[in-house]
Each structure stands twice: as structure tokens, then as C-alpha cells.
Specification:
four-stranded antiparallel beta sheet; 109 residues; mainly beta
């Protein structure tokens, strides 16, 4: 059974940084990624990374957000810098079409 467990969300001031982690289990994940969803909006890709290290970023993430993974630990991370109020959302880890429970990120202006 696939499990994805996120951690690291919280409240940060605008301009600050936050790091999220996701621990995966139950499968080998070719692609692991982060998505986000804010109230009234569709869930959208933040970034994803293949087991080979190839990354893909949403336009809003480029230059501010870095995704990485540790294949040996089945972990995926996202480092978010220069956070803006519009980055506030529930952030979800995704792999193999499965989802974590989400972790809330709030950004105060």
C-alpha cells in the first residue's frame, strides 16, 4: 500500500523560506512531485522530479523553489524561498498517481 506523508508546513512571513518533506513507502516511485491547492482554485503542479534527477517546475516556482529527492530513502523535498502571500495553500506530495494528506503553508504579508 502506497503511503505519502508530508511534513514541514506552517506559517512564514512574506519573503521567508520554508522546506517541506515527503516520505514515501509501499512502492518504487519513478516520479515524485509537489502540488498545491488554495481555496477556490484547482490543484496545480509546483514541481516534480524523476528518479534520475530530472526536474520540472511550474513557471511560478522557477527561481524560488527547488525540488530534490533521496531515492534511497524514498523522500522528496521542496525548498521554497522568497515566499509570497499567493503561495499560501495546502501542499500535497504526489507519486504514482497517489497523494499525501497535504500540509498547510500560510504566508503572512
Amino acid at each position: 500500500q502506497v503511503q505519502l506523508v508530508e511534513s514541514g508546513g506552517g506559517l512564514v512571513q512574506a519573503g521567508g523560506s520554508l522546506s517541506l518533506s515527503c516520505a514515501g513507502s509501499g512502492s518504487i516511485f519513478s516520479v515524485m512531485g509537489w502540488y498545491r491547492q488554495s481555496p477556490g482554485k484547482r490543484r496545480e503542479l509546483v514541481a516534480d522530479v524523476t528518479s534520475g534527477g530530472s526536474t520540472n517546475y511550474a513557471d511560478f516556482a522557477k527561481g524560488r523553489i527547488t525540488i530534490s529527492r533521496d531515492n534511497a530513502k524514498n523522500m522528496v523535498y521542496v525548498q521554497m524561498n522568497s515566499l509570497k502571500p499567493e503561495d499560501a495553500a495546502v501542499y500535497y506530495c504526489s507519486a504514482n498517481h497517489d497523494w499525501g494528506q497535504g500540509t498547510q503553508v500560510a504566508v503572512s504579508s
